Amino acid sequence: MSSVKKKLGLFISVLLVVLLIVGCSKSEKEVDQKGTTDTKTPVSTTDGKPSTSEAITFKINTTDPKASWDTPISKKLTEKTGVSFEYIPIIGGTDFAQQKYDLWLASGDYPEVLSLQPRFLGKYRDAGALMPLEDLIEQYGPNIKKKFGKFYNLLKDTDGHIYSLYNVQTATETPANTQANFAIQYEVLKEAGYPEIKTLDQLYDVLFEYYKKHPTIDGQPTIPFSGIGSNFVYNNPSLSAGGQPDHGNFIIDSQNQVHLNLVSDNSKKYYQFLNKLYAEHLLDKEIFTLTYDTAPSKIAQGRILAGYYPEWFLSAPESSIKSSGKLNRQYAKLPILFDANVEDHSNAFTPTWSNNNWAISKNNKHPERVIQFIDYLFTDEGQKLISWGIEGVDYEIKAGKRFRSDEIIQKMTADPDYNWKQGLGNNYNRFSFGNGAKLDDGDYATPLTKEYMIRGYDDVTKEVLAAYKKDTWADFLPPLEYVPSFLWQIPEPEGAAALSKRIQQIWDRESPKLVMSKNFDSDWENYKKLIESSGQSELEAMYTKSWKVVVDEYNKAIGQK
Question: pTM of the full predicted structure?
């Protein structure tokens, strides 16, 4: 339901029917369970250093259709650790993935290493399908323990065991590539004289004026405001405009009580904004049917003036706009609030990034090798490899600092699949310490530094930023704040799935009606009653209970309790 979950199921396609009908013979099932491993007993160590004397391959699932171990960086990782992975692609969207994971769990026929969201991991944990990892980490993961430091206990489940691993974020500054999610075309801002746009009312005014003067762009109807799917049309924009961190479909108050955002005052205000756009013919006529697959090509046409577009989604269609030479049709990324009185806490980070975590299933005969592999990723050498790439190929050393030359950048931008082919896009990259973090050598852990971002801007982008006296889009954001977790990162409470599904169905059905409503206040009240009668209070109580456990553990970890 959240932005980042979506961010996870990026751009998928067509294997649903095929995968549903393909059966496995007994021998094939055995291969799936055991993986392609060596026949010799691997040499284990007790000092946590990788034991590379025996090669071993594990199976792991992935929702990234381009993931491959046959890349230069993956091969370097194998050279360092003796470990390689064979990817099992799960392509077909979130619903299909859930079906697949449920079938695996029911049959016991799952890979040795699982990459799953917390809500799926909870099912596998409860079924006894996952190995506890704390003893393995104690023996084979010194770098994991070192880098997590005081946050190490956050890895532990309520029963005291660790069932999955993910990264720790060590940034103390806002990453230079971070940007707000409201996007407005450069040309709109330029024609208006680069006005201050901090509220939805100001956004409405500038869109209205531009559309009145320019009803068409390149011979096609101008679209003042659009989106990319239900979460990013109705829910997440209301969180951003309300200055809230992205807790998915929820908001959390100062007393750590969890509330359903779908019926909050912020949601009501945002539906009213959409309703106003609709009444004035400023809203995309196809906004209710746009998807992650159909929206990019529409954005790339350059006739959408503004929208709510997270960076992970906007980057591809905006690159198409740029490639077509329409530099003035790129987007400024600005934080926009309901009004000037809203305190903006939306630039929120977590000390760990629990999402698509790695777990070791009980089918794994050599779990210590997986821990040793992950432990290598937690070294500075491993971080440089998975985030920067190979020295001399993907980056250089200049004045003692890692640096990507213009020549290297041009090589990367010339091929949209470069990162995948090189191995910079594989799922082990999820163990990166994050943009804005620094390694022990004092240099940045990833290439996305402020200097790098500025070098990548074209002249038109620099002109827009200069008009607002900013260097990067990150400069528009409020100060970085850390929160214990995002709510969608914690395991789904028992019984919550059925309630969430029931509420989601009502939300999906009623949201377009609210946007098109001619009697908004009464329709809003009816909508709220439907949600309330479908288990809202029970769902909020479940998540409040789980959230308070997270907060207690977080406070203990950082020494506040």
Answer: 0.80
